[in-house]
Amino acid sequence: MFEHLLSPLQVGRLTLPNRVLITAHATNYADADGLPDERAVHYYAERAAGGAGLMVTGASSVHPSSPRVRGVVNAHDPRVVAGADLHQVAW
Q: What is the pLDDT of residues 11-24, one digit of tens each?
């Protein structure tokens, strides 16, 4: 019935190891500056360890003019990217 679920999937230049997806949902795991806090790091690390092929993170602010929402990551802030391990990101 689900013969393709655990097989790889090509999405553009990216090959996902399987077709299991963790959908976006709000965690409110950002600090007062809009940076991911330690809870966010552990939360996503645990989910990644579960083996999903693709994980979509929750809401984020994508432009400095966006209204500030408590608990939401300011994805436009260079410090967010600076804190990421870019060797683990598949572009």
A: 999 999 999 999 99
Residue the block writes with tokens 């432009």? 63
3 three-class SS = coil
Residue where the block lists tokens 């997806």: 21
- DSSP label at residue 16: E
Does the pTM surpass 0.90? The reply is no
55-91 as b/e: b if 16+ CB within 10 A: eebbbbbeeeeeeeeebbbbbebeebeeeeeeeeeee
Cα–Cα distances in angstroms (integers) from residue 90 to residues 24, 32, 64, 66, in the given order: 18, 28, 25, 27
The pair of structure tokens assigned to 4 is: 């393709």
Tokens 């645990």 belong to 46
